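Summary for the steering committee. One of the milestones for this cycle was to obtain a three-dimensional model of the protein with NAP bound, which we needed before selecting residues for the alanine scan. The sequence and ligand used are listed below.
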Amino acid sequence: MNRYVNISYNNNALSVKTFKVMAEKLKKNGFTVTDEFDQNAELTVCIGGDGCFLDTVQTHSLPSMPIIGVNTGHLGFFQEITPDGIDDFITRYLNGKYVIQDLPAVMITCITDDQKVYTHYGINEVYVRGPHTKLLHLNLSIDDTYIERFSGDGILVATPAGSTAYNYSLGGSIVDPRINVLQVTPIAPMNTIAYRSFTSSLLLPSDLTISIIPEKRSDSSHLYIMFDGWEQQYDNIKELRISYSSNIVKLIRLDSYSFWNTVKTKFL
Ligand code: NAP
Ligand code: MN
C-alpha cells in the first residue's frame, strides 16, 4: 500500500534544499511524496516558518492529517524540528514516537445586509478592522448579553496557539495551550469621556459566541476580516459571529516538546 506524504515549503534557499533532502529520505523509507496536495495523505510536512504553516492550513482548508513543521530560520512556534533532525523524525514517525497537539480553530461568520453568510477560520486568530484611519465603532455582545460599544481600530479574537502572535503585540496574554479559551483583545481601544471601551483582553470559555454589530456610518462601510495573515474585505456586514469551531489542526510534537520552554527560548 502506498503511504502518501505532502510537502509544502516556502521559496527561501534553505527551504528548497530541505525539501529535496526530506523528499529523498521519505522515498528511501517507502513513502510516496505527492506533487499536488492530497487531502488523503497520511502526513503533511511543512518547511519554512509559522507563516508557511499558516499558509498551508489556510490554502488547504484546515487539512485533517497530522502536520510536522520543519523550521528553516524563522521564529517557528508551530515548527517542531530543524533540517538536521529529519532522520530522527522519520525514525520516530515510523515508530509512533510522537504526540499530536490539537489546535482548535476560531471561526468567524460574516452575515451581510442581504443575508449572505461567509465563514473564515483562524488557527492563530481572526480580527476585524476598519479601513483607512477612521475610528471604528463596534457593538460587542457575548452570547446574548450586550457588553459595550467598542471604539478603536478593531477587535481581535485569538486562540491559545495564536496568543503569542499578534495578540501578544497588542498587549494580550500568553495562554498555555492546555487551556481552552478565546481571548478577545482590543486593538487601540479608546477610553475617554467621549468613548468607553475595555482596554484589556477578555478571556472567554470555549462555548460562548461573540457577536459584533458594526455601527453604520457613511464613511466606514467597509470592514476587513483578517485570519492568520489572510484578509477579506466586506462592504455590507450586518453582524459578525465568532466562536470556537469543531475544526482542529493536528500538529506533531516530539516527546521533548514544552510550550513554556518554547516561549522562553523564542521571546526572552
Ligand atoms: P509575517 O508578517 O511574515 O510575520 C508574523 C510573525 O509572527 C513571524 O515572525 C511569524 O513567525 C510570527 N508568528 C506567526 N504565528 C505565530 C504564533 N502563533 N506565535 C508566535 N509567533 C507567530 O506573517 P506570517 O508569518 O504569515 O504570520 C501571520 C501572523 O502574523 C498572523 O496570524 C498574526 O498573528 C501575525 N501578525 C502580527 C502582527 C504584529 O505582531 N504586530 C501584525 C500582523 C500580523 P515566522 O517567522 O516563523 O513566520
Ligand atoms: Mn512569516
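Key point for the committee: The pocket of NAP (ligand 1) is lined by residues 49-51, 54, 74-77, 124-125, 161-162, 164-166, 169, 228-229 (CB under 6 Å).
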